[in-house]
């Protein structure tokens, strides 16, 4: 992270949404692309200083010449990524290599580190990571800058000014509950400690590597009267949950919820709501935004400094940050970063706006809070909680 870089991101995003709803959103103005290589690099692309194709036609041609795009950690039921991946591939005729859909943000950075000299499909071109991981990756030289043509409609506080990373969407932490197994739906974090939820509660990642799981612990801290930057109370909450036998130490997903193996899943609201749609009442799913602590989380997009397919990576970003891409995310219950601009121009179908849940009162952390909390959780989870959260066997 650059010295002094702080991002009071989330309160500004909410202000931007209110601003847009009043009809005062900024106009879209194309922004230039930043330096990037034309082929796989063994040195970071930011140092290669090659020119980005000047217009979309040239960028499309260059991306199609590369022929492939490698993504990582994009579950198809996460933010409607399945539709986004298929639409991009069909639109441009580019094959997509989908690496490890269930990887966490830390795993994504490790994949870049481990494949710096790999020009094959195991080297990710692009990443989608939790907010705290973007500045970290930039500081390590793992990213290359690129500014999409809709750059000016991304709130300044949600992007690196040089284009190394930029916010893509946000959601709010929720409980996804299988009603066939759990007759009394927990309404708060405190409820999860009740005896009736023995062996029923699970996280959606490993808190030592997963941004979603880390933010779950920070949310629990907030609910217990603690802070985001000092998540001690969150760690203590999960230690108690584990000690009572309520915590199931596996990484939960929609299939495990449906089978009743992890009938209460702590996860982003967009994943829970999307899962409920997929299950269509079999089993019946209830999604709760907890009453005693609501935490919002923004994710970031970025291009690897060592991307084997740099032009395909830039075209992918152009697609995601177009109106089409942003609305695809919204169809998956995510709040896209350009939502204020989309609303101001009345380009979002009303049925999509009506489907988004009430997340009033959600807390939007600063980057400093995210970074401090992440470091404390990663360092102390084993000692305080002692639960080895792993993939289900």
Stretches with pLDDT under 50, minimum 5 residues: 1-42, 45-51
Q: Tell me, what's the shape?
A: globular
Fraction of helical residues? 25-40%
Biggest β-sheet description: 8 strands, mixed
Helical element count? 15
- If you consult CATH, what is the topology of the largest domain? D-Maltodextrin-Binding Protein, domain 2
What is the CATH class of the largest domain? Alpha Beta
Q: Can you identify the CATH superfamily of the largest domain?
A: Periplasmic binding protein-like II
Compute the number of strand runs: 10
Distance between the termini: 37 Å
Portion of residues in beta strands equals 5-15%
Number of domains: 2
User: Average pLDDT, to the nearest integer?
Assistant: 87
Please write the string of helix (H) and strand (E) elements.
HHHEHEHEHEEEHHHEHEEHHEHHH
CATH architecture heading of the largest domain: 3-Layer(aba) Sandwich
Radius of gyration: 20 Å
Structural class given helices, strands, pairing?
Answer: alpha+beta
Draw up the topology in text:
Elements (H helix, E strand, L loop, with lengths): L8 H13 L23 H4 L7 H11 L1 E5 L8 H12 L2 E5 L5 H10 L11 E5 L2 H7 L3 E2 L21 E13 L22 E2 L8 H13 L8 H12 L10 H6 L4 E5 H11 L5 E4 L7 E9 L5 H11 L2 H9 L3 E2 L2 H6 L5 H6 L11 H18 L9
Parallel strand pairs: 1-2, 6-7
Antiparallel strand pairs: 3-9, 4-9, 5-7, 5-8, 5-9, 5-10
